[in-house]
Amino acid sequence: MIVNEFGKRITSQDLNVQLKSVYKWNLNLRNLSESDAHSTLNKVSNKIRNIKNSSLAHHAERNPQYMEALLVSQVLETWLDERREMLAERTLSPGETKKREKYVKSMKKVEGDFDKRYGKRGKDVMYATATKMAKKKSVEEALDLLRGVLLGRTQLNEGEVDQASAIVAARGMVDEIQKMVEKISAMVNEELPPLMDTIRDRVGADQASAFGAAATQTLTPLLDAVKAAREGMDGAARTVAGEAPAPMATGAGADIGAGAAPGADLGADAGADMMGAETPVPDAGTDSGVEIPRADDMATSDAAAGGTAELGRGKRA
User: Which of 12, 41, 198, 278 is most buried, by the most CB atoms less than 10 A from its CB?
Assistant: First the structure.
């Protein structure tokens, strides 16, 4: 059951807030599994049915237990409907996947606007927004969606944001391993040579040579192992995001520590046309005439003011 009020879709999160307000408790939707939701809904439905079949049926609306159970059932039914919608929504095509990564890269400029409006979930909402933008047929439609989300007029449901949260977390692990790659690479290529010179000048040439050989023998396999781990985690993260794993770099031409910089977007091939034959997606601040809008530059209405926004409010995209 999807609940609507005056043309606005009411989400499971909205109903859960109401449950907390009226009965001083709510459901843990973030950690709720589908099987648990169905199990709890069956128990609550049985309770509602028993009250309806009892002598209290004529006064059910005045029975706190009945009204509480009814609201809980609405939360669970709406949550399950949202989950079904999320799973039924088609996956991105390869071209749309590239569009999403291009949008994510361009939207770094407005990441602070997402944090200001959506608090600690700002990055997740930003990524979920980029996913929906990638499915739009034109840049103008995509930017209209972005404006709506930044101003709180366009709804993203909990399922969409939770899915984006998982993707962001997976990508974050790749970024952390990439930092290890760059750190070890810097040891081998930047820190070791001058250190050997220092040892040679202050201790002796033989000691410098011995230290350099031992350090190289230790750090080189470590670097190779961490790079392999990065490639493996990159493929795993791409799978979570619905992308094909990138081919692993091979051959002598691969530089030590080479690869995407920390925070680089998965699926973004350096120097490649991210859009193929599709409408190009402009980077923020380019001379294309179309820029990613800042929230402060938009019409400052009810939504443009400070404070965090709840997910699931406003017009559904």
Answer: 12
